[in-house]
Design goal:
The structure is a homodimer. The first copy, chain A, is of the alpha/beta class. Chain A has a domain of about 260 residues: Rossmann fold, CATH 3.40.50. Chain A is built from 18 helices and 15 strands. In chain A, the strands form four sheets. In chain A, strands 1-4-5-15-10-11-14 form a seven-stranded mixed beta sheet, sandwiched between helices. The longest helix of chain A has 21 residues. The N and C termini of chain A lie far apart (about 55 Å).
Chain lengths: ~450, ~450
């Protein structure tokens, strides 16, 4: 390990607006469609499920900058700015000429970037008189963040936690409960969707798609209740741009600009958060930056999926989105990076990848833990299994820079720490983890069921 | 939850020296005694077990300020200064006129204050050509910190982890292993001491006293190996004074001075760390500050122990120390605050309590978790079960201020977070935790075996 160099912003330099990249995109994403009428989603279609402010943000294609509400901004200051760190230890361990920086979102009180959107969404719900909210969570990072935010703004929260994560990561369940949330393993008997799945496949251990279906169903059947989502949708990524906006200022403090920007990719919230503010300079100023979304090889929608309209959830309750997808009933392998076990990619990142602005990179599970261990031993922080994918991609790029003998600036988002994921590290250290092969037929069969793009 | 107010130091304002309170104490602690000769410990007695620099610090009664080595200082900057936080949320939840501040040591990469001394001790060992080190750990906070520090300075580490914690907190074991340390449940079959105990009481689940005996024995039998301790001794508390020295400057930034300073108390490392720099102003400038060491009611050496010479470990391998103790073979109840399950108090704090400068306060286990939950829900940080004792004491003081209608400034040390202790919260939430009554006879029987003070 080495001395790290850390860059913080002065309190009054923390950005006061989020960045809405859609306003600057040359080719806008195709519209989301109402799942019943198949017509573009309107505000009236959105508001039965989501709060009005987030619905407006979701459909906003014209305003590049959205003010952060004062109360959200105040709560941000409880943990922001997060440090931008020059990773000398990792550079030395790799012997690379690359300069490696990471934006450390793991320092938030719940250990990940998820709080950035949780606080915003909880605030808007409270402002609109909502009393109850529902959500889904995979590994539990989002659920833990929303439990904190719901407590902060005085809302009752029910969390559907993917059953395999509920079993793998009991500590995250406890954290949510300690903050006062109700946590239900999904699929559950609490919803029609859940009961149907459990009847047909009693041993199914869940997916984010299923948990979303359950959370949406419960929200629609509960008075004064809204559904709240931790990733995928535009307004969530919008809130997460605080990450990249801070990083931009902090890279300036370091006197450098990234040649490569990397985030792990599940639904796109931390990847969009770190990358969109830099992408802005690619779109507007023509900066030559490489953007890499690091996804698990076992759930490779960006590298092996198709660009199609698809549902955001298993049961088809959400709007249809034009995106890279493996099909909404794709059942991902039980990898420990629970937050990356999602079939689709969100519309903005999908469009940007389609247009050649960004690329996916698929990382096998074992490579992710090898990278995570090297990072822990060289930088002293144990990363979340999700973030480990970004580290693995960073290491690939840093070693390429070494081979080529070029000095590159690589920036990645350390979306969360892995202190609650130590079971995964135990299994890795014991040699009990495997990679998962995903036969092409499985993908082909799944995507064959999707409707063609309109 | 409310907006917290956080105070950070500029990087060049981080203190460059530790504070050695012994130099300023009007009545010095009685000397430690060689366990064999019963004569005051000399440097030559210390160095077979400890590195030379720490041995010198241990015996230093004249220099009030000790330089922090440059390489340790550089590593401190990876996480320091830690924030001083005004806890508006907790104040509001209690409806108290008191101003509550906490020094948040949980933000260190391993989640507690323990890194402050781990880095220093690992550095000194490395400087002196040591290749291997051994230590004990209770809840695992110290072991995790030393694993990080050993990795940072390139040392091989063996950790004896108290068996009950090894079982209760498997994630901390994994963290140590991920950093590359070897972890052994204590009592173990790896040492003579361990084998004897396991033969006599096969189901004994360990104590810090036993783990220390094992670690010392292994260090003495391994070439080029030193023993390293996480609390109790003067040099450890010395390294931890960085906490209070920073807090002093940060309280100045807040424009206030504490009327009450509180820390949880196991061996005294975080309590000494936060309190000694303020105690300096009590000793030298006559400031009127109340110092409270919050200990578990089930291991109450400060409130119900005796001031006697006693060993630091179960087997009698360590020097004898004049201190408040429950007797070195006291077997504490299996509370979740594993770091507080220690029979003795260290010589400095013991002398200061004896002289009326400080006081102990005993906190039942259930009260500690009730306080921890209120803190989590009002401040958004889940505290370690150890730190929860400091929070409980803070709440008592804040409610007293409310009753009396006086505005007081209360400062406590949040020594660590509890993200890896969620099993304990689960049991608390399920109603499965209890308090532990400790009959006076048990204490009396234990301390009756001790030698009288010389």
């Amino acid at each position: 390990m080495e001395r790290q160099k850390r860059f913080f912003l002065e309190e009054n330099a923390i950005p006061r607006q989020w960045y809405n990249i859609v306003a600057d995109m040359k080719t806008k994403p195709l519209p989301m469609l109402n799942p019943v009428t198949k017509k573009p989603m309107t505000l009236d279609d959105m508001t039965p499920i989501f709060n009005r402010a987030c619905s407006e943000q979701e459909l906003n294609t014209t305003d590049a900058w959205i003010d952060i509400p004062e109360q959200v901004y105040e709560m941000y200051k409880n943990y922001r700015s997060t440090p931008l760190v020059r990773a000398y230890g990792l550079e030395k361990a790799l012997g690379t000429p690359a300069h490696i920086y990471f934006k450390n979102e793991s320092v938030s009180p719940i250990g990940s970037h998820k709080l950035n959107s949780a606080l915003a969404q909880a605030y808007y719900c409270k402002q609109e008189g909502v009393t109850n909210i529902t959500t889904e969570t995979g590994a539990g990072q989002w659920g833990a963040a929303l439990s904190y935010a719901a407590r902060a703004f005085g809302l009752e929260l029910a969390v559907f936690m993917v059953k395999v994560s509920y079993e793998q990561k009991p500590y995250r369940r406890s954290i949510m409960q300690t903050f006062g949330a109700q946590v239900i393993a999904s699929p559950s008997m609490s919803t029609k969707v859940g009961r149907k799945i459990l009847t047909e496949t009693p041993n199914y251990r869940g997916s984010l798609g299923t948990a979303i279906s359950e959370a949406v169903e419960l929200a629609m059947q509960t008075p004064n209740c809204k559904y709240v989502l931790g990733s995928v949708l535009n307004h969530v990524t919008l809130h997460q741009t605080i990450i990249g906006l801070e990083a931009e200022k902090q890279m300036e403090m370091a006197g450098e600009y990234p040649d490569v920007v990397i985030g792990c990719f599940g639904g796109g919230s931390n990847f969009g958060g770190i990358s969109f503010p830099f992408m802005r300079h690619t779109i507007i100023d023509g900066k030559d930056t490489k953007f890499i979304a690091a996804e698990p090889a076992s759930c490779p929608k960006l590298t092996r999926g198709v660009f199609q309209y698809d549902f955001g959830d298993e049961a088809g309750l959400t709007p249809m989105m034009p995106m890279f997808t493996l099909g909404h009933d794709f059942a991902p392998a039980h990898i420990h990076a629970g937050g990356l076990r999602y079939h689709g990619a969100g519309t903005i990142v999908s469009q940007l990848i389609k247009d050649g602005y960004m690329e996916g990179m698929d990382i096998p599970q074992l490579e992710s833990f090898q990278a995570a261990t090297l990072f822990a031993q060289s930088e002293g922080i144990i990363p979340a299994p999700e973030s480990a994918h970004a580290i693995a991609a960073t290491i690939r790029e840093a070693l390429k820079a070494k081979e080529e003998g070029v000095q590159k600036n690589i920036l990645f988002c350390l979306s969360g720490h892995g202190l609650i994921d130590m079971t995964a590290y135990d299994q890795y250290n014991a040699g009990d983890l495997t990679n998962y092969d995903l036969p092409q037929e499985v993908i082909d069969q799944n995507v064959a069921k999707l409707e063609k793009l309109v």
